[in-house]
Amino acid sequence: MQADAIWQGGGIATMVPELGRYGAIEDGAVATGNGRIVWVGRRTDLPAALIGPATIHHDIDRGWLTPGLIDCHTHLVFAGDRSAEFEARLGGISYQDAAKSGRGILSTMAATRAATEAELIAIAGPRLQRLLADGVTTVEIKSGYGLSLSDELKMLRAARALGAAHGVRVRTTLLAAHAVPPEFAGRPDAYIDHIVNEILPAAASAGLADAVDAFAETIAFSPAQVSRVFNAARALGLPVKLHADQLADGNGAALAASHHALSADHLEYTSPAGVRAMAAAATVAVLLPGAYATVGATQPPPVASFRAHNVPMAVATDANPGSSPLLSLLTAMNLACCLFRLTPEEALAGVTRHAAAALGLADEIGTIAVGRAADLVVWPVNHPRELAYWMGALVPTSINISNQNYTAPHR
Ligand code: DI6
Ligand code: FE
């Protein structure tokens, strides 16, 4: 078989753990065909039979090739902004108090409900381009600012359309259980009934949700309410993930693990028992340093304990208008190192292999291995640790998503 394309001329950070640190192959080569990786190894071992007259040659140019980066937790589709709330919080009011005073998630809900699907696609497009410019080839996008049947489906359709329009792999997550909308004020259980009986089945039958998420927190939903949503999701065959233990220890990590969640996210206040439950359930810990920094949190997630129990750690932007107006996954990697003391290798695994697992896509993306999608990024760096080192300075040389190659990324 002749390859469609070959990358060589530098290092390959495969991120395959069996290959050692960064899964590195110093002078490597990768061959692709039909949008998949068909060969990876040392350049000197590259079979001549893979090279044909139509094979396209890409030069790593003494830099490094990594898997396409994966942002496994975003709320990219929303209208309006919350810069006034940001200012107010810097003036002293807390994120929780902002939520209670009608700012918070419900103010974004109002703006998002007022926007058409086409408007949401137009507003979120530049945000997606900004992520793509960091070498991001897969983005998870949550709903959760519609909080009604029609507005939640509108958000999910916008997310799907964005992926198609920008050539990026998008995974959608239904987050109807994000806040109680005004129609159900004071009746959270009636809103959970509405999610379970109407919103979830409609999203599932339209094929609009790849997963289901919920916000477990005293300012949001209780463990019993989350469990009702998760039981309904799993009955429909949808995997679940949870916003857990962000503002207090609500036993969220253990709750997520008890539902075999793909991931539990935030986790600043997760207890040792929560870490052990996640380890037993193979639930990925998604760390969100942008939210930690923005809400002015002071207790970092229990990284040493995740490490000791082999809980895989992913890193994501949590891009959203309230707690994390962050649109750079490279910056999230840097913050995860500086604020949470991840190693640069852990940060890179957190946006590749472990982020893939957090989306249930470990067999598809996140490593450079035969059979995986040809999502590849060339970086002008001397060592892969530089991806986490630079603060807002690194631009990929080229980005490949499956069959599409972008040699001049937009920034
Ligand atoms: N946790 C978050 O970080 C976002 N949602 C959530 O459950 C923030 C949502 C917002 O403030 O708009
Ligand atoms: Fe979030």
Q: What can you tell me about this protein's structure?
A:
- The structure is a single chain.
- With 411 residues, the chain is of the alpha/beta class.
- It is built from 15 helices and 16 strands.
- Strands 1, 2, 3, 4, 5, 14, 15 and 16 form an 8-stranded mixed beta sheet that branches.
- The mean pLDDT is 96.
- The protein has helices at 83-90, 95-100, 104-114, 117-132, 149-166, 188-205, 223-235, 252-258, 272-281, 289-294, 303-308, 329-340, 344-350, 353-358, 386-389, and strands at 5-13, 24-33, 36-42, 56-59, 64-67, 69-71, 136-142, 169-177, 211-215, 240-244, 263-266, 284-287, 313-315, 376-379, 398-401, 404-406.
- Helix 4 (117-132) packs across helix 5 and helix 12 packs across helix 13 (344-350).
- A hairpin with a 2-residue loop joins strand 15 and strand 16.
- The protein is 36% helix and 21% strand.
- The chain has 2 domains: 5-67 and 367-406, Urease, subunit C, domain 1, CATH 2.30.40.10; 69-358, Alpha-Beta Barrel (TIM Barrel), CATH 3.20.20.
- The longest helix has 18 residues, at 149-166.
- The structure holds 3-[(4S)-2,5-dioxoimidazolidin-4-yl]propanoic acid and fe (iii) ion.
Concise synopsis of the structure shown:
Helix content is 36%, strand content 21%. With 411 residues, it is of the alpha/beta class. It folds into two domains: 5-67 and 367-406, Urease, subunit C, domain 1 (Roll); 69-358, TIM Barrel.
